[in-house]
Specification:
Largest sheet: 8 strands, mixed
CATH class: Alpha Beta
Shape: globular
Order of helices and strands: EHEEEEEHEEHEHEEEEHHEH
Strand content: 25-35%
Number of domains: 1
Number of strands: 14
Amino acid sequence: MPYAAEISRANPSCFLFVIDQSGSMDERMEGGTSKAAFVADVLNKTLYNLITRCTKADGCRPYFDVGVVAYGGNGVGSGFEGALSGTILHSLPEIEKNPLRIEERVKKVPDGAGGLVEQSTKFPVWFDPKNTGGTPMCEAMRRAAEVLVEWSDSHPNCYPATVIHVTDGQSTDGDPEHIATQLRQIATSDGQVLLFNLHIDATSSAPVIFPATESALPDHHSKALFRMSSGFPPHLVGAATERGYSATGESRFFGYKAGYEAIVDFFEIGTRASQMR
């Protein structure tokens, strides 16, 4: 049965985030935050949550190799800066040790009497928002494929890599569908690479999340992103239904016109591991 390999220190898996940093990501969402800034915030929280989940008494365990491919007007390259900028993928303990900075944030927590109080908290930042130029999606998919061919060859029996791709527009360097098909064919003995695509939107339009067909999608671009996306891994169906989505084994791991809540859910469900030891 594919996608069943146990994830351990000796047999890690891989998360690769592919993030659109084109000029249109400067568009403001409801509430005034730019799409680029909100996605960066969610990605940083996702990295922190992964570290927390993989931290035991002996520290953060290397259950995952994690990387970010960023693409936009500055080209395609690592989305990490500073000590992590040299290569795309890094072990989770290496990421834990090398944030760009630690910010002081304020969050609201229950006060024990039915209300909320503000509490200061430290927030590590690994990935900064950027937005400039076009959308070289094809080049980004090629770069992701190069990285994951090498990773899969080095981890032939591990749980296969997961790619979480976030974009708000159409490719400006060609049709990425054929490259995405090749990317999904990269495999370990436990299954093929999982490619999850999320189209984000600044309006309040009703999103289409985890559809089983492309019939409800409005145009060639959205239907192409649907076809580019992997089918739903069985162990993630429950994670999606817990959050109120109508996901089945026939669904694609794809979201269209996602807003705040759907973006957060997509990252949360997409980074659920199988069995960690």
